[in-house]
Every structure is written in structure tokens, then in C-alpha cells.
Specification:
The protein is of the alpha/beta class and 381 residues long. The protein has 13 helices and 13 strands. It has helices spanning 16-29, 46-53, 71-88, 119-122, 131-145, 154-163, 208-221, 239-245, 263-272, 287-295, 305-311, 324-338, 350-367, and strands spanning 2-6, 36-42, 61-65, 93-96, 111-115, 148-151, 171-173, 195-199, 228-232, 255-258, 275-278, 299-302, 316-318. The chain has a seven-stranded parallel sheet with strand order 3-2-1-4-5-6-7. The radius of gyration is 21 Å and the shape is globular.
Length: 381
């Protein structure tokens, strides 16, 4: 079987969808029945994916898409260039690593898409208007057109069921895996220990303001004055507000925002932090939580379904709502008093996950005949 994984996106720094695409490729290569994996990336992503794949790079045929990195050219490529690449590479199935606008009848083979979340509907402020309207349109089109949907969690399947009830029939849940880094940990000289770590884009649902307020409380009331807070993630709609918030909280010299680290540096951050914090109000999955558990890092999470699904009994949880910052500060203090370096969690094996994808593809390939018309459109609530 030959599989084409499309990972072309605007990102060239650490994001969940890029890490998912790289991990997906590694999972597929663990299967004897997979003859080859083609990975499509933008030319601006070559360095990042080379670092992500590491030694696994030799097992992947990388197709570099040479287009300008803007939404107009990317969306045109998804509509026209991706079907052409699938035909040219003679693949048996196409896997979109996140929803993009495609037209099914342009492909000669089945098309699968990973659904991470339903943010355009759940958190429109992450995108702003009118951009969110296009995001909803593209998400709706993709869900309507593809043959199968691979949801990264039961939480994501639940949100899909809420907005697209008719699409649930073609959806399955295949959780993310965290592939062990292929590079050794690389210390960041700019980061002093001890520190707390938060890996999150600067978006509304990540609740980084709560993390900052809780850290300020913990420093003042829990005797954590020697700690710093490291926030790793791409800038976003909340960046200016977050930086401004550090001033009244007295954290200007105690918080470090980092928007770009390589795999070795991220591994070092996970392995040496006193605790990893994830305070989201809604998530499709929560890959940083999984990656932290793989390293044995203590993890403190907001008590939401996706984090419970990923973290189970391995994490400490706090509830959101009024005084969430106080409850998080108390959890931070409790975890640090215990000084744990927890046993690495027993997590889904990449070979088992690869087998789940292979089974999905095989079922599709055997059942799908050439399609001359687009599937029925699904209607949102």
C-alpha cells in the first residue's frame, strides 16, 4: 500500500498538526503492508520536518510544494495540486493531516482526513471575523467530501456529532501517539532552572492568562520566587494581552515566551521542568500532555474531557471557572512539594496506531469504487 500524507500548512514552527503529521508518517512506516509513504510539505517547512522526522526521514518520500505561503495559494494547491500529486505518485490512499478544502471527485483514490477539533465553531474568536467564516466553510466542505474522518479523541468525535451529526457514520477515533524523539535533548542556555513549562499557542482557549495569574499567586504565596515560567508556542490573537498582563502581575522578568524550539530543545524542556501546565477550556486532544507523560514529567491539567481522556490518572487536575487561578496555584504548590518524577505513562504503541490506520485504509480501498459525483452534503445544526 502507498499512502500520501498531506501536511502543507502555514506553520513552520512547533504546532500540534505538524507533529501529528510527522507521527502519522512514523506510525505508517511501522507497518509491513505499507510499501511507501509520501509526505507533502511546503518549501517553508523543510527544515522543521527534517528535524521532526530525524532518522525516520530516510523512510519517507518527501514532496516539497513550491508555492507562496499564503492561504490563497495553499487552498488552490489543495484543490488542484494535491489530486495531481496523488495521481503522479500512484498512491492508494490520501490522508489529510487536518481539514482542508478538497473536492472528492478530483481524486481517483479514497481520501481520509484527521479531525483534531471543531474550533471554527467552538471558539470563533481564535480566528476572528471574517476569517472564521472561511474556516467554517472549508471545514464543512472537507467533512462533506472525504471518505472517512479520523478523530483524534472521543472528545473530538463528540463535537463532530454536535455540529455534523450526519458525518458521524464515517468517523472513527484513532488517538494521537507521541513518537519518541529521534534526537538527544539539547539544553537551552537561555532557560534557567527551576521552571514550569506550558506548551500552547497564544489563543483564547489555552487560558494562558489563568496560567500567568496562577504563577504569580504561587510565587507570592507558595514560596516559588526562584521559579520562572516558560511558555512555548506560536504567537496568536492573545499575544499582546499576555505580554501586557505580565506587568501588573510583576512577572516581566519571570516569564519567558518562546515561539520556536527544535525537537531536541523541546525534549530537554519536558525532561527538566518541575511540572507541565495545560489550562485549556477546550481541546481536541492535547498533544503536549501526551508528550509530557512520555517523558515522565508531572502534569497539571484543567479538568476537561480531552485531558481526562489523554491523561487518565497520570495527571493532577483543577477545575476552571471563578478562582481557577487560585486552584491552579494550589495544585502547582502541591505537585512541587511532592517533588515527583513520575513513572512514564503506558501509552498507545505506534505500531498499534499504525495498524488502526492501515485497517481504515484497507477497508476503504476494498470498498471504494470510482466516484463520479461528490458525496451528499452534510448540514450543520
Amino acid at each position: 500500500m502507498r499512502v500520501l500524507v498531506s501536511a502543507v500548512s502555514r506553520f513552520s514552527t512547533p504546532t500540534g498538526i505538524c507533529r501529528h503529521a510527522a507521527n502519522l508518517v512514523v506510525c505508517l512506516n511501522s507497518q509491513d503492508a505499507v510499501d511507501s509513504v509520501v509526505l507533502a510539505i511546503g518549501k517553508w517547512q523543510t527544515g522543521y520536518f527534517a528535524a521532526l522526522l530525524g532518522k525516520n526521514r530516510q523512510q519517507v518520500r518527501v514532496e516539497v510544494v513550491d508555492i507562496p505561503n499564503n492561504s490563497l495559494h495553499r487552498n488552490w494547491w489543495f484543490a488542484m495540486g494535491l489530486p495531481e500529486m496523488a495521481a503522479r505518485c500512484a498512491v492508494d490512499v490520501v490522508h489529510l493531516s487536518f481539514p482542508v478544502p478538497v473536492t472528492r471527485n478530483r481524486f481517483r483514490v479514497p481520501v481520509v482526513c484527521t479531525v483534531h477539533d471543531l474550533y471554527p465553531y467552538d471558539i470563533p474568536e481564535n480566528f476572528g471575523y471574517p476569517r472564521v467564516i472561511l474556516n467554517r466553510l472549508f471545514l464543512r466542505k472537507c467533512i462533506s467530501e472525504v471518505d472517512r474522518l479520523a478523530c483524534v479523541s472521543q472528545a473530538t468525535l463528540s463535537r463532530l456529532s454536535h455540529y455534523f451529526p450526519d458525518a458521524v457514520a464515517k468517523a472513527v477515533v484513532i488517538p494521537n501517539v507521541a513518537v519518541a524523539p529521534s534526537v538527544p535533548p539539547k539544553p537551552l542556555s537561555s532557560v534557567a532552572r527551576p521552571y514550569l513549562l506550558c506548551v500552547a499557542q497564544h489563543r483564547q482557549n489555552k487560558n494562558l492568562d489563568i496560567v500567568l495569574k496562577a504563577f504569580a499567586l504561587a510565587r507570592q504565596e507558595k514560596d516559588l520566587s526562584d521559579f520562572v515560567l516558560i511558555i512555548v508556542g506560536a504567537p496568536g490573537p492573545k499575544t499582546k494581552q499576555l505580554i501586557a498582563l505580565t506587568r501588573p502581575l510583576g512577572l516581566q522578568n519571570h516569564v519567558k515566551f518562546i515561539d520556536n524550539v527544535d525537537d531536541g530543545e523541546l525534549r530537554w524542556l519536558y525532561e527538566n521542568t518541575a511540572a507541565v501546565i495545560a489550562a485549556s477550556s477546550i481541546e481536541g486532544f492535547g498533544l503536549p500532555v501526551l508528550e509530557a507523560l512520555v517523558t515522565g514529567s508531572p502534569v497539571i491539567c484543567s479538568d476537561i474531557p480531552a485531558f481526562r481522556e489523554v491523561g487518565g490518572g497520570h495527571c493532577k487536575y483543577f477545575s476552571l471557572g471563578p478562582r481557577a487561578d487560585t486552584r491552579l496555584a494550589e495544585q502547582i504548590a502541591e505537585v512541587l512539594r511532592a517533588q515527583p518524577r513520575v513513572a512514564k505513562a503506558i501509552l498507545p504503541d505506534l505500531r498499534n496506531t499504525g495498524a488502526d490506520y492501515l485497517n481504515l485504509y484497507s477497508t476503504l480501498i476494498s470498498a471504494t469504487s470510482p466516484i463520479s459525483e461528490s458525496p451528499n452534503q452534510f448540514v450543520t445544526k
